[in-house]
Amino acid sequence: MNQVIQRVREELKASADEKTKKSFQRFFKEEVKYYGVKTGTVGKIAKKYWNEVKSLGKSEIFSLCEELYRSGYTEEAFVAAFWLPNLVEKFEPSDLAVFKEWIEKYINNWAKCDGFCNHTIGDFIEKYPDCLSEVKSWANSENRWLKRAAAVSLIIPAKKGMFLREVFEISGMLLNDEDDIVQKGYGWLLKEASRKHQNEVFNYVLKNRKTMPRTALRYAIELMPKELKEEAMKRD
Question: Of the residues 11, 35, 147, 190, which has the maximum number of CB atoms within 10 A of its CB?
């Protein structure tokens, strides 16, 4: 199994380009570890090696993914995030504890957080909606990435119009968080929910606009018509 990981790493290293290396860090406030590989290229590498590992058992693939996350390299995290959603049919409720542990141990930038949560945990929640209360509880964590995860794990379901009540509950729990990483997370969630529930999200923003951080508010109304945006931006 480690031979696969080694080959993934060798190919990522060989696929790095100077332009991507130079620009990579500017997307992050915190220091990040990276090879400097374009996202599209990482996807191709992930797909190539998925064809080698997909016949393995779930626990073996989980071990491979954890090894990729453990390295700290953002592109290796992207490979794991590509592989994991392919296992959705094998997901079990107990896997959520594993996912939470990975966030706490290995997630240290927004790209890793979103790459992991949007699809892996989003798909998990759609399969096991009864586990959504646990994901919602992450919004009370002191870990900034768990708080962001509580919001961005619902991005894909919210885009489909699902879980509106929980979207508002999580947003309410995070409403006055001072961390812009968290503000952008729940603002993005509200934006995606507005695709199917524009009126409800607009009314939620109106109700909370006096206290909602400007960053979150701007994200939330991004898809709305100009006149609704102007109304939402009023503070008086």
Answer: 190
